[in-house]
Amino acid sequence: LLLLDLFCFGDQTVVAARKESVCQKHQEPLKLFCRDHEAPICVVCEQSQEHRYHDIVPVEEASQEYKDQFCTCMEILRKERNRILAYKDSLVKESQDLLDVFEFSEVKPHSKKKVVQR
Questions:
Q1: Which of 5, 43, 52, 85 could form a disulfide with 17, with the two C-beta atoms 3.0–4.6 Å apart?
Q2: CATH number of the domain that 26 lies in?
């Protein structure tokens, strides 16, 4: 299999490791990618009956497409995470405000009681 370790940092994608293997069936380098099977294949496999009418592209092209999709998904998740964290912060602030109001109202009636009792 072809293995890529991808890391997205903003608009930049970094390939941390790449391991190129050979086809187990034909011992040829895996230079192509079958989109129908979503798997790397060799040039001999491309000519086989199994892949004859499939959508085949160079492995580098498929790799770039997957990197782009991955980075797009990561950006969506980052934005969603930031939105959730902002919402959480607003809830924490609202909770603290309510606690402050509650504590203030707790202190006020007690002080009135003490004044009335004296």
A1: 5
A2: 3.30.160.60
